[in-house]
Structure formats: structure tokens, C-alpha cells
Amino acid sequence: MARNLDPKCKQCRRESNKLFLKGEKCFSPKCPMLKRNYFPGVHGPGKKRFHISSYGRQLREKQKAKRTYRLLEKQFKNYYTKASRQSGDTSENFLRLLETRLDNIVYYLGFALSRDAARQLVNHGHILVDNKKVTIPSYQVKVGQEISFNKNILSRPVIKERLEKLNKVQVAGWLALDAALAAGKIVSLPKKEELALAFDPTLIIEYYSR
After folding, report:
1. pLDDT: is 98 or 48 the higher one?
2. Which of 43, 116, 144, 201 lies 20 to 30 angstroms, CA to CA, from 9?
3. Cα(63)–Cα(145) distance, rounded to whole angstroms?
4. For residue 60, what pLDDT is reported?
5. What CATH number does domain 8-89+198-209 carry, 3.40.50.720, 1.10.10.60, 1.10.1050.10, 2.10.260.10?
6. Could you report the per-residue pLDDT of 153-180, keeping only the tens digit for each?
7. Domain 101-186, CATH 3.30.70.3340 — does that match?
């Protein structure tokens, strides 16, 4: 699968927003967003703020969301197309499709420190959905389905370290986590107001609706 291999910290700096792409580093004093809070590149430090058009704002919100969920353009646009064909609010449908991806749920449950790490766990067959191995990061998790670790990897030092910290993970109200069993599930579909978003989904819908 194609991936965005651009330096992660530069992606955050380009969007002038923390996208939490590097796990624990994003919460440490070493985060480049704290040290160099300006656009990347040689002209970044002296670049003046400029007027941005409505199209420019829509484009930036789209780029933020794409980079947050670690998707490329074709896959990201496919989610919009699918959401627009569903009944109801397109922006909410769009968010639900993105938020209920398996790699995203694994990240939210605290099984991994970043979405990239969560995707790797899924790709390598380390995550079970209802006790069945699923290796597709884009798999849409349904309400009530249980997400857990494959027992074959529970003895690995990296996984042990994550398990020890699960009881400190605070999950959103639409998720449930059992730290003792290292398992979680979706208890209800997320609503737009429940999500802490770094981007405006309405502007993304406007971008693709042009």
C-alpha cells in the first residue's frame, strides 16, 4: 500500500497544528512544533502571514485531515464519495467512516502510540476483531465488535509496555476499553460534537462538492 513518507514533524509544521503523528514525542519538550513553530523550509522563519482564499482554507483543512488519518488522496476522496451517497449529514457520515477504521480504533484504545504504529500492528496480524485476525487497516469496525491483541504477541516487551499503561488511557464516550483484558469495542457510532478534531469537516465537504 502506498504511504506518505514525508517527514512527520514537517507535516505538522506545514499545517501549523499538532497532528500527533509521532506518538510520545508530540507530548515532549522535543516536539518541533514547540521549537520551530513556523513553516518548514528555508523561507519558513521569515514567511509573512498572508491572506488565504476560501478555496485555500478548504484545501488546508483537507490536507490536515488526510495527514491526520495517514491517507493518500484517492482513498481519502473515496470516503467522501461513499459518505455523500449515504443518507443524512454528509460531513458526519464522512467522519464516521474515517473514525471507525480499524487502525484508528486501535490507536484510540491505546494499543499503539500513533496511527502509523496502529496500522503496522494490523498489517502484521497482531490485532483481532471478534477473535478473528484482520490485516486490513481500513476495515470498518461495527458497533459491538471487540478489538483485542493476538495472544501470540502478548509476551513481547513492546506490547507488555503498552499493556501496563492501558489503565491510564482515557477513551471517548463512544468507545469502551477493558484494560485488564486488553480489549475494547465501539459502543455507539461517534457524533461530530464528540470528536476532538484539528480540522473542519464542513470545509472538506465543500472542497469536494465544488
Report:
1. 98
2. 201
3. 30
4. 86
5. 1.10.1050.10
6. 988 998 888 888 898 888 989 999 999 8
7. no
